[in-house]
């Protein structure tokens, strides 16, 4: 009998939502549980496309809004085969950001929603999207914003609004795969909420690999 495929779980979140910490904890917990797991960070800054994105995010270079949007998408496409291969071999793949960030950030800059979706059409569809939110007051009380492009209060506010639209679109196209988790509590409390969402996905009889926006 063929091994069941791995689950594809995507994390999205606002700045200072504790996303990176939660992703690391989840990977450790799944490994401790005896699962094969691979973490895939987006943007993947290690590829040649990723290095262009990195330079843009560090404001060392400027690019047209559409051009950088397409580079972020191309960065996912260049990793898509490896994700599918791992899933087919039973590995659980955890992505730290994916195309939903791509839409939320580019739409926050004013690009049309329909344009933002288009280049990701056909990418592997996650089995579950864990979206970590914090209310603006809690975000303000956490450590200061970083120095990269987009790390300002004004942009984060607009991104938050766009993420709500993305969540609605996911629901409309793909059903109940989007889990919004309030990450205002302690790291341990949030971890338990994440774990509940993830185990419900892992225990479900997930279908054959779907395609994003199709
Ligand atoms: P990190 O701080 O998580 O490295 O993210 N971004 C990300 C986009 O604008 N489009 C995308 O498609 C993706 C994946 C979000 C770096 C920044 O890049 C933004 C924050």
TrEMBL record:
<dbReference type="GO" id="GO:0005634">
    <property type="term" value="C:nucleus"/>
</dbReference>
<keyword id="KW-0067">ATP-binding</keyword>
<dbReference type="InterPro" id="IPR027417">
    <property type="entry name" value="P-loop_NTPase"/>
</dbReference>
<protein>
    <recommendedName>
        <fullName>Thymidylate kinase</fullName>
        <ecNumber>2.7.4.9</ecNumber>
    </recommendedName>
</protein>
<dbReference type="GO" id="GO:0006227">
    <property type="term" value="P:dUDP biosynthetic process"/>
</dbReference>
<dbReference type="InterPro" id="IPR039430">
    <property type="entry name" value="Thymidylate_kin-like_dom"/>
</dbReference>
<keyword id="KW-0808">Transferase</keyword>
<dbReference type="GO" id="GO:0004798">
    <property type="term" value="F:dTMP kinase activity"/>
</dbReference>
<comment type="pathway">
    <text>Pyrimidine metabolism; dTTP biosynthesis.</text>
</comment>
<dbReference type="Pfam" id="PF02223">
    <property type="entry name" value="Thymidylate_kin"/>
</dbReference>
<feature type="domain" description="Thymidylate kinase-like">
    <location>
        <begin position="11"/>
        <end position="194"/>
    </location>
</feature>
<keyword id="KW-0418">Kinase</keyword>
<keyword id="KW-0547">Nucleotide-binding</keyword>
<dbReference type="InterPro" id="IPR018094">
    <property type="entry name" value="Thymidylate_kinase"/>
</dbReference>
<keyword id="KW-0545">Nucleotide biosynthesis</keyword>
<dbReference type="GO" id="GO:0004550">
    <property type="term" value="F:nucleoside diphosphate kinase activity"/>
</dbReference>
<dbReference type="GO" id="GO:0006235">
    <property type="term" value="P:dTTP biosynthetic process"/>
</dbReference>
<dbReference type="GO" id="GO:0006233">
    <property type="term" value="P:dTDP biosynthetic process"/>
</dbReference>
<dbReference type="GO" id="GO:0005524">
    <property type="term" value="F:ATP binding"/>
</dbReference>
<comment type="similarity">
    <text>Belongs to the thymidylate kinase family.</text>
</comment>
<dbReference type="GO" id="GO:0005829">
    <property type="term" value="C:cytosol"/>
</dbReference>
């Amino acid at each position: 009998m063929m091994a069941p495929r791995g689950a594809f779980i995507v994390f999205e979140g606002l700045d200072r939502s504790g996303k990176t910490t939660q992703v690391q904890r989840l990977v450790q917990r799944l490994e401790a549980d005896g699962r094969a797991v691979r973490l895939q960070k987006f943007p993947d800054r290690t590829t040649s496309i990723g290095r262009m994105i990195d330079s843009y995010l560090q404001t060392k270079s400027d690019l047209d809004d559409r051009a950088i949007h397409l580079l972020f998408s191309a960065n996912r496409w260049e990793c898509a085969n490896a994700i599918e291969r791992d899933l087919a071999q039973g590995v659980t793949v955890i992505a730290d950001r994916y195309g939903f960030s791509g839409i939320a950030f580019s739409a926050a800059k004013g690009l049309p929603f329909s344009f933002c979706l288009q280049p990701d059409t056909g990418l592997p569809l996650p089995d579950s999207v864990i979206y970590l939110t914090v209310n603006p007051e809690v975000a303000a009380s956490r450590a200061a914003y970083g120095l990269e492009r987009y790390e300002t209060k004004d942009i984060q506010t607009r991104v938050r609004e766009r993420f709500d639209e993305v969540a609605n679109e996911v629901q409309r196209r793909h059903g109940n795969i989007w889990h919004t988790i309030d990450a205002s509590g302690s790291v341990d409390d949030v971890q338990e909420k994440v774990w509940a969402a993830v185990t419900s996905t892992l225990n479900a009889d997930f279908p054959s690999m779907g395609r994003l926006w199709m």
